[in-house]
Design goal:
The chain is mainly beta and 271 residues long. It has one domain: OB fold (Dihydrolipoamide Acetyltransferase, E2P) (Beta Barrel), CATH 2.40.50.140. Strands 1, 2, 3, 4, 5, 6, 7, 8, 9, 10, 11, 12 and 13 form a 13-stranded mixed beta sheet that branches. The two termini are 28 Å apart. The relative contact order is 0.17.
Length: 271
C-alpha cells in the first residue's frame, strides 16, 4: 500500500512535461506546511490524465488538497515526489492534512549499538530509525526512512515497538507524516534539510500459517432492486472543474503559518 493525503501550496505554475515519448504529466513544486517546530517540506508533484488538464489552470500560490497520491523516493537525488491522486482547492476552514500510509518490509535489524539507528536522550526520549522497502512493480522498490520517538510516560511506545518487533524482512504497514528538519552546516554555513517520515502508528503483518484455511461465508447480505442514489446522482466524472470556478479574488491562506527559517543559533541537527 502507498497512499498519501496532504495539503500543499503550489510554488510555481504547473507545467506539462514529457515522461516518455508518448505520455506527458503536469508537474510543479509544492510545499507542505510544517509539522510543529519542523520546517516546511518541498516536494515535486506529478499529475496525470484528466486531473492534469485541470491542474494546468491552477495559478502559482494555490492551496490544494491532494488525496490518494503515491509517494516516491529517488535514492540518487535523495528527493521525495508525489504522483497522481485527486486534487481540489481548499478554503480557510479546511483542516491541514499530512498523512502517509505505506506497506512493505523492513530492510534491517535495529542495533542498540548504532547511534544512528537507536538512541535514548538525557530527557528519557527513545528514538528509533528504520527503513521500509515498498514494492513499485517489476521487481523494483522504493526505500523510505522513517523514525519513531516516545518518552517513558507515553502510552504508545512506537520506538520501543520498532526496536523489539521489527527485523530484516518484517512485514509492516505504517501510518505517518512527512516532516523536514532544517539546520545550518557548521563548516559551510549553508542551510541543509532532511525529510523523513515520522511514525504515528503501525501494524505488523500477521505470521503466516503452514496450511491455508478454508474461507466460509459468515453472514448473508440482503439484496434489493430499490437502491438509493448517493450524492444526488453525481459521479466522479461529473465533478466540476474547481479551477474554472470563481475564487473570489484568490484562495485564502491555510490555517497556521510556515514560520521563519532557523538561524545559525537555532541549530536543529538530526542524528
Amino acid at each position: 500500500m502507498n497512499f498519501v493525503t496532504v495539503c500543499a501550496q503550489t510554488n510555481e505554475t504547473p507545467r506539462e512535461v514529457y515522461t516518455s515519448a508518448t505520455s506527458t504529466a503536469t508537474r510543479c513544486l509544492v510545499t507542505l506546511p510544517p509539522v510543529g517546530k519542523k520546517a516546511p517540506t518541498v516536494l515535486e508533484y506529478n499529475v496525470y490524465g484528466k486531473n492534469a488538464e485541470r491542474f494546468t489552470r491552477a495559478p502559482k500560490g494555490s492551496h490544494i488538497y491532494i488525496h490518494g497520491a503515491k509517494l516516491r523516493f529517488d535514492i540518487d537525488s535523495k528527493a521525495f515526489s508525489l504522483h497522481g491522486g485527486i486534487i481540489t482547492p481548499v478554503t480557510e476552514q479546511f483542516p491541514i492534512f499530512n498523512n502517509v500510509i505505506l506497506t512493505g518490509r523492513c530492510i534491517k535489524d535495529i542495533s542498540h549499538d548504532d547511534g544512528r539507528a537507536f538512541k535514548t536522550t538525557a530527557d528519557g526520549l527513545m528514538i528509533a530509525n528504520q527503513t521500509l522497502s515498498v514494492n513499485t512493480g517489476r521487481n523494483q522498490a522504493d526505500l523510505f526512512n522513517f523514525y519513531a520517538m516516545n518518552s517513558v510516560e507515553d502510552k504508545l511506545n512506537n520506538a520501543e515497538l520498532l526496536v523489539n518487533f521489527t527485523r530484516k524482512g518484517t512485514g509492516i504497514t505504517i501510518n505517518g507524516r512527512l516532516v523536514t528538519d532544517a539546520w545550518f552546516d557548521k563548516e559551510t554555513k549553508e542551510k541543509r534539510t532532511n525529510t523523513k517520515i515520522q511514525l504515528v502508528s503501525m501494524t505488523l503483518a500477521p505470521k503466516g500459517s503452514s496450511e491455508p484455511q478454508p474461507i466460509t461465508p459468515q453472514t448473508t447480505v440482503a439484496s434489493s432492486d430499490n437502491v438509493a442514489t448517493l450524492w444526488g446522482g453525481r459521479t466522479v466524472e461529473e465533478a466540476p472543474d474547481p479551477w474554472n470556478q470563481a475564487s473570489g479574488g484568490g484562495l485564502p491562506d491555510l490555517p497556521g503559518h510556515y514560520g521563519p527559517a532557523p538561524t545559525e543559533d537555532e541549530e536543529m541537527v538530526p542524528f
